[in-house]
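The material for today's practical consists of a large collection of protein records. Getting from the letters to the tokens is the skill we practise here. To make this concrete, we reproduce a full record directly below:
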Amino acid sequence: MRQNLTAFSMTVAPRKGAEHIFRSSVEHLAANGVGNARFSVVELTDSRAVLRGEITGDPRLVTDRSLAEFLTDTLAVKEGIHLDLEVRIEAWPLPAGAAGAVAA
């Protein structure tokens, strides 16, 4: 069975009070991914990060909102990382493994 691949971009910001761990949280996310999602950092400052990502799996994650809610919940529950994030699903899927090819 072929898995669905969804490519997306994500802008994240620290939640109030978590600014001091923001960079390390984003670096952890890029190095380890979360669930079936993998990320690469496009831009990282102390107050904002832009990431490219891809996720395989659940075909219900087809809207920006549903994917953002899934990632927010998964990051909080599995990694203890709480971020404000905005997701934009790409119009066309990236080839498998392409997220890792974007330079930081």
